[in-house]
Design a protein that fits this description.
It is built from four helices and no strands.
């Protein structure tokens, strides 16, 4: 593999892993918030925490798919990132936040998944191009 292709290969994986860790950190924040809430029962706390960890589990599954099948995983990451970015943008706009704040919030949280998806797709096509030039 050429050096430039390795850059795409590893940068896609590292960025996606960091973005998933970023999402998991926010799930842990909710976990600790609900864990120390005294007005709820144990089962209500456990349910609330599980609900916040479900997106993280889904993102880990997509990361595993993307590492095995770069093109499919990249497309899935791109679609999920764009959908969540649009959803978050619209949700924040409906909460009467300014457009700039809504857009920056959406891009900070879901922009890395969009970029990682693009990097996975580019990595797939660069590897495919290298294999075809070798043969």
């Amino acid at each position: 593999m050429k050096t430039f292709t390795k850059v795409f290969h590893w940068s896609a994986r590292i960025l996606c892993i960091l973005a998933v860790i970023w999402a998991i950190l926010f799930a842990f924040q909710e976990f600790f918030y609900y864990s120390f809430s005294s007005d709820r029962t144990f089962w209500k706390n456990a349910t609330a925490c599980l609900i916040h960890f479900i997106p993280s589990f889904i993102l880990v599954a997509i990361l595993i798919i993307a590492m095995k099948y770069e093109k499919a995983g990249g497309i899935i990451l791109l679609i999920v990132g764009l959908a969540l970015c649009i959803f978050t943008f619209i949700l924040n706009l409906n909460r009467t936040e300014p457009v700039e704040t809504s857009l920056s919030t959406a891009l900070i949280f879901y922009g890395p998944f969009i970029v990682a998806g693009i990097l996975f797709i580019i990595s797939h096509y660069r590897k495919k191009k290298e294999i075809s030039t070798v043969q």
